[in-house]
Amino acid sequence: MAGRLARLKKRLFRLFLAFFPQRAAPEDGFALAFLKEGERALYLAMDPRDRAHAVRVARRLLQAHPEAPPEAVRAALLHDAGKALRPYRPLERILTGLFAPPLPPYPLRSGLLGAFQVRRHHALYAAERIEDPLVRALVLEHHTPKTLWGKRLHQADQEE
User: From CA 128, how far away is CA 132, in angstroms rounded?
Assistant: First the structure.
């Protein structure tokens, strides 16, 4: 019962943030201390809600696994960077969280179909912009983990 209530509170907070993104409080200093030069621009291009989420995922990963390699922490911070391809309007953010039809990644469409594409393929879009092959691989598998650190990143993301 307590777990269900905690999940409901998180969902309500996310709904609130969908309409008030300025209320997100990403800890950019924490993130930028881990990221390399080219990665910093990817991170900073993200919506503040996604940056705040990324920091919470990275912190959760480090809390559970203090021995996490730098590449895993950087992947946690960049795992949703593909969502920065286009801004989400509040209702798009809500709808894409509920449903993601099977659309191909390219060509990227406009409107709601484009929002669905970004939601479904954000890991690919992020990975295409990440130079480090280890970080890129972990970002690609953050929804479908194959490696130990991919599974740990996925777990930290799911707990968030």
Answer: 10
Integer Cα distance of 67 and 23 in angstroms: 32
Report if pTM > 0.85: yes
Query: What whole-number distance in Å separates Cα of residue 2 and Cα of residue 40?
Result: 37
Whether cis (ω within 30° of 0) applies to the bond prior to 66 is no
Q: Which amino acid is at 37?
A: E
Per-residue pLDDT of the chain (160 residues; tens, 9 = 90+): 666 776 667 767 666 666 676 677 899 999 999 999 999 999 999 999 899 999 999 999 999 999 999 999 999 999 999 999 988 787 887 888 888 899 999 999 999 999 999 999 999 999 999 999 999 999 999 999 999 999 999 999 998 6
Torsion of CA 85, 153, 37, 55, to 10 degrees: 80
The Cβ of residue 149 has, within 10 Å, a number of other Cβ atoms equal to 22
